[in-house]
Amino acid sequence: MKTIGCTIGLLTLFLLANSSSLASSEKLLSVEERIHGLSLIWKEASYNFAYFDQVPDLDWDATYLEFIPKVINANSNFDYYRLLTRFVSLLSDGMTSVEMPEGLVENHIDFPAVKLAEANRQAVVIAVDQRYKTELPLGSVILKVDGKAVEDKVKQDVFPYISSSTEHIRWHKGIRGSSAFGYGLLAGVPGTWAEIKVKYPHGEEKTLKIRRDARDRTIGWHSVKGLGSDDDFQFQLLDNGMAYLALNSFDNEEVIEKFRNVLHRLKLVRGLIIDLRYNAGGNTYIAEEIVKHLSYYDIPGARTRMRIHNSTFKAWGRYAEDFSWAEKYRPYFEGDAWLVNEPEIVSVDGVDKVVIPTILLIGRETSGAAEDFLVYTDSLKHFTTIGEPTFGSTGQPLLVELPGGGRAYICTKRDMFSDGRDFVGYGIQPDIKVVRDVDYYLSREDAVLERAKALLINEAGRLGQGALDGNAYQALNQSNVNPN
């Protein structure tokens, strides 16, 4: 067995002792506070959670009773919040989760300086600390962690802490891990060593040890593709009269103005690629303000449903079996009364429009307001989606303050396509699927983008659209600057 890095057993023992000391020095929440926090989550979800039908085997009341003795016997605030996380994850919704108090995850969980990605349920090494690049080459596949096969490890030790409505996102999150929420294939006590069995790209298998010490230090990452962009908006002209537009976030309303600043250039191209693969959402208003420029016709948005509680109607519904007049109140008694909102219509009047063949690149990290964007474009026939199924969760979370400074989020709003089709729990499916494999992470070529380019060229040719006028294209290239 090979150990990556120098042997520092004494330091590891010190870190473990220090971690234990830190845990013991935390003021443990009282039994009453712990029960209260669990009860708050149970109560608010009972009244407000929008997706109980997607977890038909979950008896929420019985599960609450099962967790009461567990939270009573929690040995630390960290253990208590881990129990709350497990409790909420049983609701299987990506917008319903528990956020630990500040510092709690950082004090108890760390990772090695290794970044993983999921491909066909394999854990692929896509970035490592520079000092590890020889011992752990990119493209290596992790087979075991601490003696457990990867599949067993994630199902037993990781999935129970992940809030997700879709299986593909559980695998994505479970292998990649989350330093904010404190779960992952390689997660563990700070300073401890993860024993991993890996298969190198050339086929050799080895067992290594890597230390969980990535937090709070500067890491020089070695990777093929880089680790993503911090820019919420990117614009680039491509060959053959096409344009590429990356909308990486809907958090900042400045994205709207940046988009409008390039509209005059988009009017001169004959095909558009919009990349939403790394857009985790934000404000749906931003999605609306952009999409209205991409259609000649008004656009229907999402149909929504939210639960209704009326105390008197619930009381009357109790007698639905005995009196016919009470039958209409039965849903209130059974917790199945809903307010249904017809789709809002996005008006396209009075705005500049660019209506050309458009490809949307989507993937597992496309979520929230970015999925709402896809709901709008679902009715636009000049749009095609390429990539992977999306995250599969959106809605309006209810924030619940918990004892000790943590928070819970309960999804209260059910979003659907305008015709009532569900996508939460499944993900929005692409028109053309491009599956990630190991090569996807090792190639400098963007396979999804290249597929989109080829499709756009064919589509433009089918519609009989010629190349751009030479002078217009030259002028366009001269103004090709990022509007940030």
UniProtKB/TrEMBL annotation:
Keywords: Signal
Pfam families: Peptidase_S41
Entry keyword annotation includes Signal: yes
InterPro entries listed in its UniProt record: ClpP/crotonase-like_dom_sf, Tail-specific_protease
GO MF term (any one): endopeptidase activity
Alphabetized SUPFAM superfamilies for the sequence: ClpP/crotonase
Secretion signal span: 1-23
All residue ranges annotated as the Tail specific protease domain in the record: 203-435
Domain of life: Bacteria
Protein name: Peptidase S41
Organism: Exilibacterium tricleocarpae
Organism lineage string: Bacteria, Pseudomonadati, Pseudomonadota, Gammaproteobacteria, Cellvibrionales
